[in-house]
Amino acid sequence: LIAWANRQDVPILVQYAQDPFNPRGRQLALAALGRLKAEEAADVLAQRLADFGDRPHAVKALQALGPPAEKASKWAPGKELSFTAGSGGARITVETLSGAVNIRKKP
User: What is the mean pLDDT of residues 34-52?
Assistant: First the structure.
């Protein structure tokens, strides 16, 4: 998938990158999108930062896109992707496209 994908495959790779039932397929799609430098997939790549298993693959793909990823993504620096982790009181925030992650305890 990674080696054979081309620009025409970007729409289907974006769909694979969002498949909730196929983690390995998601990760391969993320890698392929990064290799293709698919700027149009920046938002999907940024959203995958929230998934612990997908995060390393999404970070690599966003790094491959470089600065255009920050311009194309609604999760650009200055914005953040936040969610609560499990039933605990921790709050996880992804603040940049570099994959920097902060874990904060709720007061």
Answer: 88
Tokens standing for residue 101: 């992650």
Distance CA 33, CA 64 (A): 9
Query: Beta 81-84 vs 90-94: how paired, if at all?
Result: antiparallel
0.85 surpassed by pTM: no
Question: What burial class does residue 40 get, using C-beta atoms within 10 Å of its C-beta: 0-12 exposed, 13-18 middle, 19+ buried?
Answer: exposed
Q: Measured between alpha carbons, how far is 78 from 74 in angstroms, rounded to an integer?
A: 10
- Cβ contacts of 106 within 8 Å, gap of 6 or more: 89, 90, 91
What average pLDDT does this structure show over 13-42?
93
